[in-house]
Amino acid sequence: CNDNDNRGLPSRSECTSLTQDVTVPGLILIEDFVSEEEERVLLAAVTGPHAPWAPSQVVPSKSGSVRRRVQHYGYVFDYESADVLRDRSQEEKGAACPPMPAIPKKYQIIKQQQKLEEEKYNATTSSLLLESHIEESVKDRRGWETFASIVERIRRHKFDNASSSYTIINQMTINEYKPGDGIGSHIDTPSAFGDGLMSLSLNSGIVMEFRFMSDKKKKKLVY
């Protein structure tokens, strides 16, 4: 069939074992990044009565139309241009959104210039404080504090080696997918996401299909 006829529509999922030997450079899959209890508290916050959903609209995009509910933090992602709106002053153009979730400073990454041994100690101590804060926030059902703390956990995570972490995360979009919904075929804009893109799935899983630009018949299926 013609790929242009199916832009914006999810493809029918196949068994991930069909592509288990295919490697996508830079793709890292982390299972159980949040616990089931953390997930429940997160979902209650981001789908609750105070969730900052963007105005309902049918947004034309390069891969079709975006009809799902979304929330933006830090910067608004513009589906028509497939880029972020960097000028927050353009509220009339929909550039206004909440800031990135932040935790109290005492739980944030320690950045003081100290001796190597002290840096290792402080990093370990800071991580322990963060995980303790997450545990308390989840126990007390403090959803937005849990939300901010999970974002901080993502910032600190070492993805592929000891030096690969993304301490600066300045934009986030929450997408609500109903049963049967999916993500249309698309290429993420390098100017907005050239340094990396992370996705956290909540409430259910889905098969994602990655295709190679050099050989579009070659793909990787990930659940």
Please give a quick description of this structure.
By secondary structure, the protein is an alpha+beta fold.
Describe the structure.
With 223 residues, the chain is of the alpha+beta class. Helices cover 24% and strands 13% of the residues. It has four helices and eight strands; from the N terminus they run H-E-E-E-E-E-H-H-E-H-E-E. The chain has helices at residues 36-46, 116-139, 143-156, 190-193, and strands at residues 59-61, 64-66, 69-73, 76-78, 83-85, 172-176, 208-211, 219-222. The strands form four sheets. It has a two-stranded antiparallel sheet. It has a two-stranded antiparallel ribbon with strand order 3-6. The protein is globular and about 50 Å long. The two termini are 25 Å apart. Mean pLDDT is 80; it is low at 1-5 and 110-118.
What are the salient characteristics of this protein?
223 residues, globular, alpha+beta, 4 helices, two-stranded antiparallel ribbon
